[in-house]
Amino acid sequence: MSKTDLYQGFFKLEQYKFKHKLFAGGWSDVITREVFERGNAVVVLPYDPIQDQVVLIEQVRAPALASTNSIWLLELVAGMVEPGESHEQVAKRELMEEAGLDCRAMDYINSYLVSPGGTSERFYLYVGLVDASKASGLHGLDHENEDIKVHVVSREQAYQWVQSGVIDNASTVLGIQWLMLNYQQYCSETCS
Fold first, then answer.
1. What's the superkingdom here (predicted)?
2. Which of 36, 143, 183, 188 could tie 119 with a disulfide, CB 3.0–4.6 Å?
3. What are phi and psi of 41, to 5 degrees?
């Protein structure tokens, strides 16, 4: 295998050349692929089990314009893993930066490759138990040009938005679907 750096800016593009064993036996020809290198990220599903509410953020995502009529997406809290940071540290940092929230407990859900046909990026998904009554307003870091609006909705409303396509980004869809299957482990008698 060989790897060549093609571009380094806000993102990085690398070219890989490799061969692999074939299922039928023997070896493939040399395969050339460009890989979008971004690093890994942590995604946090802020959930209030007492109120049975989810905290979502709304922010600009320029690539969304390629397939939708809006650059504004409803998402879970997320951020890139910086060198030396644990996934839990990223989760807590991003909860505060993007939603103004602390969490009283955090559980790891899973990790997954975002789009393995084109990028090496892996998301680490957590549920963070929060007090949704403290979530409101506008957030984000000025030096990152973030303009983030916080939304608090019922778990059922968030799931309805997934089903109707209002929420259409993979990390949020996966997080909300996971919550619908697992919310009862976090709820008191208030969850129905």
1. Bacteria
2. 36
3. -135, 160
Q: Which of 25-34, 69-78, 175-184 has the lowest mean pLDDT?
A: 69-78
Residues 6+ apart with CB under 8 A from 86: none
Distance (Å, whole) CA 129 – CA 101: 10
Amino acid sitting at position 21 = K
Interatomic CA distance for residues 124 and 105, integer angstroms: 16
- Predicted pLDDT at 142: 65
pLDDT at 65: 60
Residues in the annotated binding site: 78, 94, 98, 146
As beta bridge partners, residue 192 has: none
State the Cα angle at 43 between 182 and 73, rounded to 5°: 100
Residue that is written with structure tokens 């990220």 in the block: 41
> Cα–chain-centroid distance for residue 106?
15
User: Across all residues in the chain, what is the average pLDDT?
Assistant: 89
| Catalytic (active-site) positions | 144
Task: Give binding residues for Mg(2+) as ranges.
Answer: 78, 94, 98, 146
Per-residue pLDDT at 74 exceeds 80: yes
Question: How big is the CA angle at 85 (ends 81 and 87), to the nearest 5 degrees?
Answer: 65
CA distances from residue 160 to 65, 92, 176 in whole angstroms, order as listed: 23, 27, 10
